[in-house]
Amino acid sequence: MDIVVLPGDGIGPEITEATLTVLRAAAARFRLGLRFETHDVGLATLGTHGTTLPEDVFARAMAADGTILGPIASYEYPPREQGGINLSAAFRTRGALYANIRPARSRAGLPHWGRTPMDLVIVRENTEGFYADRSMHLGAGEFMPTSDLALSVRKITETACLRIARTAFELARGRRRTVTAVHKANVMKVTDGLFLRCVHAVAEEFPDIALDDVIVDAAAALLVRDAARFDVIVTTNMFGDILSDLASELSGSLGLGASINAGDSTALAQAQHGSAPDIAGRGIANPSSLILSSAMLLDWLGTRRGQPRLNEAAAAIERAVDAVLAVPERRTRDLGGTTGTMAFAASVAEALATA
User: Fold this and answer.
1) Which has the closest alpha carbon to 116: 43, 216, 223?
2) Residues recognised as catalytic
3) Considering only CA atoms, which of 86, 101, 80 is closest in space to residue 247?
């Protein structure tokens, strides 16, 4: 099974190396036959190739069984016409990785900042919405007719809404069988109205799944006050981006937020946080997010390919991360510990032996 590895920018190479340490240990224990192929992207290729995403690298990633992408510093990239391609947007739109799946759960021994524990998954539409780089076939979704007037276009399509809704309902069947649609249809009656109609249409295909809907500002408040009420949340692109960061932070830390971008035939694991250039190269970054995201990738592949050993390896990685996080001194600095990036990964790899 071929996995393309793209280390990214900032702390990306460090946490990617840590993640590969864990994956190699899991591959050895569960006899997974994983083959890793690493390529530079981002700022590393901007000077050498004139682009942050060389076309041959993109093609190789899309042909692989799965991809691991480290954090990227897209805010440092030049305009697209000068080679500054946003890797996340390119994979999600060109690669049709339309579902961004982000779980958030409380973990034993770590502070939980909300009023109730949580165990939920946010299913976020990945290819349209208010994101200017995903709104138009040609040109940007943000524009200025005059110097004192700025406009932004939001794109919502029936096709994208139906497929993200099905992803959420299918996921709920393996959990607590509840889906919550988060929207702002009281204000954006046309675009979020279309989203809600599509979610309700898909709900008719899943009579065993309960559906409710919550306005986005109320959903943010409920994540703080009563996160236990949520099982699977399905929502549009920007709402999902914001709420998933909130949920991860409330559950303990954004540094623990796992994330995959999934399509019909392949998926990409990606840390939920940014490239943190202020701590790059110091060996102190928390690699948990990318480790857990990579475990999600294994689980996705196991389910899609009918290979239960991949699912078993993913579950073992989750347990191993929890076991290490349960010991305060073995945590990284952002979680109050003193352990460095690679030492944390080594502890997780060691814990895999009994996880």
Assistant:
1) 223
2) 131, 184, 217, 241, 245
3) 101
Which residues, 6 or more positions from 219, have their beta carbon under 8 angstroms from its beta carbon?
Answer: 180, 182, 233, 243
CA distance 263 to 281: 33
Instruction: Name residues of the chain where pLDDT drops below 50.
Output: none
Q: Which two tokens stand for residue 260?
A: 């995959």
DSSP symbol at 208: T
Q: Contact, 232 vs 244, CB < 8 A?
A: no
Q: Among 3.40.50.720, 3.40.718.10, 3.40.50.2300, 3.40.190.10, what is the CATH number of 1-98+258-355? A: 3.40.718.10
**Segment 83-137, tens digit of pLDDT:** 999 999 999 999 999 999 999 999 988 888 888 899 999 999 999 998 888 877 7
pTM higher than the cut 0.90: yes
Range 112-251 classified under CATH 3.40.20.10: no
Give pLDDT tens digits for 238-287.
999 999 999 999 999 989 999 999 999 999 999 999 999 999 999 999 99
Which residue ranges does the chain devote to CATH 3.40.718.10? 1-98+258-355, 112-251
Residue 104 confidence (pLDDT): 96
- Distance between CA atoms of residues 177 and 171, nearest Å: 8
Q: CA nearest 127: which of 93, 159, 153, 163?
A: 93
pLDDT of residue 261: 97
337: left (phi over 0), alpha (psi -120 to 50) or beta: beta
